[in-house]
Amino acid sequence: MFKKLIPVAIVAACAFAQGAKAQTNLQMFYDFGKDRGIITTTLEGFYGDKWGNTFFFVDYDYQLKNAAPNGTYFEIARCFNFWQDTPLGGLSVQLEYNGGRYNFYGINNAVLAGLDYFLHSSDFRNTFNFKVLYKWIDYAKVDDPNRTMQTYINGDPYKSNVPLQFTFVWGMQDLFGVKGLRFSGFADFWWQDHDLFNDNKGEAMTPEVSHFVFLSEPQIWYNVGQHFGCDNLNIGGEVELSYDFGSSKGFWVRPCAGLKWIF
Predict the structure, then answer these.
(1) Are 54 and 77 contacting, i.e. CB atoms less than 8 angstroms apart?
(2) Closest by Cα among 163, 166, 161, 160 to 139
């Protein structure tokens, strides 16, 4: 349904790796997934300060038959770290909010809180974040179609049996010694009751409930602009790897090609 570019600290890892304190970038992707065929724009921002860092991104999905966005998704996360110069400097406390709309229907809002642990190589070219987050999901009522796409199966209300999310984020700069080549991404696993309406071929099926989600989006970018005096421009793409994500059952591989402009 949506790209989910970070939960969260992809840009945080990128900023550390490139020695930057802040970064804003705009990405545009074409999704080649057999159930997609859409264009997505993503605006990301990361800003560090003496108290920690803030990360956000906003996705818009566009169907090719019209120019107007038919879906949007938003995440914002704040990592608090008042002890950056101590032996526990790699450990932060994180707060996060997720939410959006798709085809005039709301996506369940979520609030997350937990711990983030940051590791890096001595030159900061390779960075890793490990996150353990408590995840509270607002399961809206089925009789309010303006707030949610979820339904009740067999009369049972949704709930999260294990309200946790585990996240791993990585960033590798100048991969294989190639200047400007970057490999980054994230992997999420969380528990959430949600409906599956499509089988692993994209065909409609009798709805059933899934209780967890796996989502990973490895990206690779090359700073092509360095060759003609425009370091802002990157080309590359990502592959969305997911299991029971959105309304699609089973394991899916959805490749995307994209451009990224770093402001």
Answers:
(1) yes
(2) 160
In 95-113, which positions are buried (b, 16+ CB within 10 angstroms) versus exposed (e)?
ebebbbbbeebbbbbbebe
* Token pair for 151: 């339904």
DSSP character at residue 104: T
CB 181 within 8 A of CB 175: yes
Please, are residues 143 and 150 in contact by the beta-carbon 8 Å criterion? no
Dist CA 243 CA 222 (whole Å): 28
- Cβ-Cβ contacts under 8 Å for 143 (sequence gap 6 or more): none
pLDDT, tens digit, for every residue of 33-78? 777 778 899 999 999 899 999 999 999 988 777 667 778 899 999 9
Judge contact between 243 and 210, C-beta under 8 A. no
Tens-digit pLDDT profile for residues 218-246:
999 999 999 999 999 999 999 999 999 98
- Does this model's pTM top 0.85? My answer is no
Task: Assign 56 to helix, strand or coil.
Answer: strand
Cα–Cα dist 221/10, whole Å: 13
Token pair for residue 138?
């607002």
